[in-house]
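USER: My hope is that you can spare some time for a protein that puzzles me. I am handing you a single protein, as its sequence and its fold in token form. Walk me, if you will, through where the backbone shape changes along the chain. The protein I mean follows directly.
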Amino acid sequence: MALKATIYKAELQIADMDRGHYGDYSHTIARHPSETDERMMVRLLAFALFADPALGFGKGLCVEDEPDLWQRDLTGSIERWIDVGQPDEKWIRKACGRADEVVVVSFGRAAEIWWNGVRDKLGRQDKLIVLNLAPDVAPELARLTERSMRLQFTIQDGHVWVTNGRDTVQVEPQVLMARPQR
């Protein structure tokens, strides 16, 4: 018998002073049996970093041809494609061909090794943004996990504060690759 996804409810209050974006979002998140709390919480962090009413969660680990999050315009074109973890460089190049902007939020102890292995292969991808989280961030975010969560994200000067009202986690995503200025 196959294991089923675990359902989480997340109410997010986002105050992004860097982008001037403020909003409340309510999400029902299906956590695949093979997904950890750490990865799920990094998906929520990625949502907060790029929050937009058109940004939504993909079907996740069970579907190979979808990102963790994506934003489509009214015609169905993909404006933003977001993956968390350490995706294969071929997968990233394919995503760059399909979307206007591709974001990878890497995390975990193997993130530096992954980046050193793919950095040169992805150097020409001008649609790509790569952010990295310090190794201790994902476990700290996982401590905030509850089946029904109310999280506040405050973003200012590249720093993110995530709180559930009792505990706060500070995150400073490191930009490993940024889109060239036009």
User: Anything to note?
Assistant: Helices lie at 37-49, 89-98, 111-118, 137-142. The chain is about 20% helix and 40% strand. The mean pLDDT is 93.
